[in-house]
C-alpha cells in the first residue's frame, strides 16, 4: 500500500460502493413524490390531455351535455302516399248502380206504368211526378204530349212498351247528342309555344265545388293527364287547405296565397303561369261563390278570367250545382250564367235526391250540357255524364 496510485484507487472504489445505493434511494424518493403530486392535482375542463385520457366520455363539439348522438332519433317526415284513381269504366258502372238504387223518381214512374191501361188520373199522376222531379213545366208538357200521342197511335196499354216509349222521350230531352266532352286541348301560340288547358270552376259555397276540383284532378290523373290546382277562393282559408289536401292525395301541386283575403285574380294568374312554365297539361282554378253582391261577383270572376287568359285561353267554365237544391239551384245557375260564359255543368249529390229531372231542366234553362255528375262522398264518386246510362238507371 506504499504505492500512492494504488492507494487512491482503493479509496475511490470504496467511495463508489457507498454512494451508489444512496443515489438510487434519492431517485426513487423523487419519483414517488412526483407521482403523489400528480394524483392530488385536479383535472380542469377543456384540458386537452384530460379529454384524451377520458376517451369516449369526452363530448363532441356542438353536442348538448348529457345527450348521446347514438340515442338521438331523427325527425321522420311522413309524405302522404299518392292514391291510385279508379278507372273511368269502373267508376261509371258503379255510379249507375248507385243511381239506380237511389232513383225515387224512376221508381215512382214505373209504379204508375205498371198499372197497365192508364186512366185519366194515372196520366195526371204521371205528369205530377215529372214536375215534382224538377223536370220543369215546359219539358214535362212536351214529354207527356209525346208519350200520350205515341201510346194512342200504337194503341198499346202494355206496361213494358209504355216504359220503352217513356225512356225514348226522357232520353230525347236529356239530350244524347249534346257534346259533353271536356275541352282540355292545350293551346298553341303564334310563337309555337304550347300552353296548358285552363278550367275555371264556379258555383256557390256549399255545393261541393272545392271537393269537385279535387275529384276532377283525380279523374284526369287516372287518364294520365298532368294537373295543377289554383286555390283562388282566398276568402276561406279552409278552402285552400282542403285543396292542398286533395293535391297531396292526387299527387299534384297547388298554388295558393298565404294571406287570407288576397286577390283571387293574382292567385289564378300565378297558377296558370306556373302550369305554363312547368309544361302541365291542365290547370284547374277554384273560385269563391259569394252571391251577396251580383255586381261584385261579376267583377271578381271577370277579372279572374281575364288575367288567366293573359297566359292561356280558358277552355272550360264549369258550374258546380247541388242537385238536391232543386229550383233554388236553378236560381243560382241563372246568376252564374249571366256573370260568366258557362261551358258545362257538374251536378253533385245526384244520388241524394229523388229529383233527377234537374238534369233536363238545368240544361234547358242554361243551354249547356251536364258534363260531370257526382254520386257520393268518395274520391272516385265523379264521372262523365252518360245520358243513356242515366235514363236507364232511373227506369231499371
Q: Any overview of this molecule?
A:
Involved in targeting and insertion of nascent membrane proteins into the cytoplasmic membrane. Acts as a receptor for the complex formed by the signal recognition particle (SRP) and the ribosome-nascent chain (RNC). It is an enzyme of class 3 (hydrolase). Its main location: membrane. Residues 45-64 have a biased composition (Low complexity). With 396 residues, the chain is an alpha/beta fold. Among the domains are: 88-174, SRP54, nucleotide-binding domain (Four Helix Bundle (Hemerythrin (Met), subunit A), Up-down Bundle); 187-342, 3-Layer(aba) Sandwich (Rossmann fold). It is 52% helix and 11% strand. The strands form two sheets. An eight-stranded mixed β-sheet has the order 5-4-6-3-7-8-9-10, with helices on both faces. Strands 1-2 form a two-stranded antiparallel ribbon. The protein starts with a helix and ends with a helix. Residues 36-79 have low confidence and may be disordered.
Q: In summary, what is this structure?
A:
The protein is an alpha/beta fold and 396 residues long.
Amino acid at each position: 500500500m506504499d504505492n500512492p496510485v494504488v492507494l487512491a484507487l482503493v479509496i475511490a472504489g470504496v467511495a463508489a460502493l457507498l454512494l451508489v445505493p444512496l443515489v438510487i434511494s434519492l431517485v426513487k424518493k423523487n419519483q414517488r413524490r412526483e407521482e403523489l403530486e400528480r394524483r392530488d392535482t385536479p383535472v380542469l375542463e377543456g384540458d386537452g390531455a384530460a379529454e384524451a385520457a377520458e376517451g369516449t366520455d369526452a363530448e363532441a363539439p356542438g353536442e348538448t351535455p348529457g345527450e348521446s348522438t347514438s340515442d338521438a332519433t331523427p325527425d321522420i317526415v311522413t309524405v302522404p302516399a299518392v292514391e291510385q284513381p279508379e278507372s273511368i269504366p269502373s267508376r261509371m258502372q258503379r255510379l249507375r248502380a248507385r243511381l239506380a238504387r237511389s232513383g225515387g223518381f224512376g221508381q215512382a214512374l214505373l209504379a204508375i206504368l205498371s198499372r197497365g191501361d192508364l186512366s185519366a188520373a194515372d196520366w195526371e199522376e204521371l205528369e205530377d211526378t215529372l214536375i215534382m222531379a224538377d223536370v220543369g213545366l215546359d219539358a214535362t208538357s212536351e214529354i207527356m204530349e209525346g208519350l200520350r200521342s205515341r201510346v194512342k197511335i200504337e194503341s198499346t196499354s202494355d206496361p213494358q212498351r209504355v216504359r220503352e216509349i217513356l225512356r225514348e222521350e226522357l232520353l230525347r230531352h236529356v239530350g244524347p247528342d249534346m257534346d259533353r266532352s271536356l275541352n282540355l286541348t292545350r293551346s298553341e301560340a303564334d310563337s309555337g309555344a304550347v300552353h296548358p288547358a285552363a278550367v275555371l270552376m264556379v258555383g256557390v259555397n256549399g255545393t261541393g265545388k272545392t271537393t269537385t276540383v279535387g275529384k276532377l284532378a283525380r279523374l284526369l290523373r287516372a287518364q294520365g293527364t298532368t294537373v295543377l290546382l289554383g286555390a283562388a277562393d282566398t276568402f276561406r282559408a279552409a278552402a285552400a287547405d282542403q285543396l292542398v289536401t286533395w293535391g297531396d292525395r292526387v299527387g299534384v301541386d297547388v298554388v295558393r296565397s298565404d294571406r287570407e283575403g288576397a286577390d283571387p285574380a293574382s292567385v289564378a294568374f300565378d297558377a296558370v303561369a306556373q302550369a305554363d312554365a312547368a309544361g302541365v297539361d291542365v290547370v284547374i282554378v277554384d273560385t269563391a261563390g259569394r252571391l251577396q253582391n251580383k255586381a261584385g261577383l261579376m267583377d271578381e270572376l271577370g277579372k279572374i278570367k281575364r288575367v288567366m287568359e293573359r297566359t292561356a285561353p280558358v277552355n272550360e267554365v264549369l258550374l258546380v250545382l247541388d242537385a238536391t237544391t232543386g229550383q233554388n239551384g236553378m236560381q243560382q245557375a241563372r246568376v252564374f250564367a249571366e256573370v260568366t260564359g258557362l261551358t258545362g255543368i257538374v251536378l253533385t249529390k245526384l244520388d241524394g235526391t229523388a229529383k233527377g229531372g234537374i238534369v233536363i231542366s238545368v240544361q234547358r234553362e242554361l243551354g249547356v250540357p251536364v258534363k260531370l255528375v257526382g254520386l257520393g262522398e268518395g274520391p272516385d264518386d265523379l264521372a262523365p255524364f252518360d245520358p243513356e246510362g242515366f235514363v236507364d238507371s232511373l227506369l231499371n
